[in-house]
Amino acid sequence: MFKKSVKVLVLASVCGLIWTSASIAQYAKKGKEVFQRLGCTACHSESSSAVAPSVKEISKAYAGKPKDLEDFFLGKREPIIDKSRFGAMKSFINLTKKISPEERQALVKYLLSF
Ligand code: HEC
Asked: Among 37, 69, 71, 100, who pairs with 62 as Cys (CB 3.0-4.6 Å)?
């Protein structure tokens, strides 16, 4: 009886873990799609910062601060990486403001997954 409930518990937590990591991966995947659909990849690449900060650089700058990045996409926060080049980026905030909160969250998850 005891053994059985332990088994059930272990099984349940393993399933929970698999489900959680799968849904995080799903989220980041959705965020990548949003990033591509909105044309962000025209300037941002995953690892080169030639035209605009790379996704890696963004991930580093906003590590542990998903809310700040979300607020930046809502136009509520100033850029923290390169204010002098913000002119090129500014109009894209209109796009990130318009997407659904769920898509914005996915975008943040994707950008912080590097
Ligand atoms: C026309 C080129 C261009 C496009 C397209 C573009 N960006 Fe940018 N982005 C830049 C430049 C240049 C910077 C550096 C200025 C800055 O730090 O704000 C930047 C900076 C950023 C930053 C860092 C902000 C900070 O705190 O400094 C984020 C995050 C970002 N872009 C996300 C996006 C997303 C999401 C999209 C698509 C909706 C996008 N960008 C589209 C050029 C672009």
From this structure: 69
- Whole-model pTM: value is 0.87
Mutate to test the pocket of ligand 1, among 57, 92, 93, 105 (most ligand atoms within 8 A of CB): 92
Helix ranges (H only) for the chain are: 2-37, 55-61, 66-73, 86-90, 92-98, 101-111
Domain 23-111 has CATH 1.20.140.10: no
* Domain residue ranges in the chain: 23-111
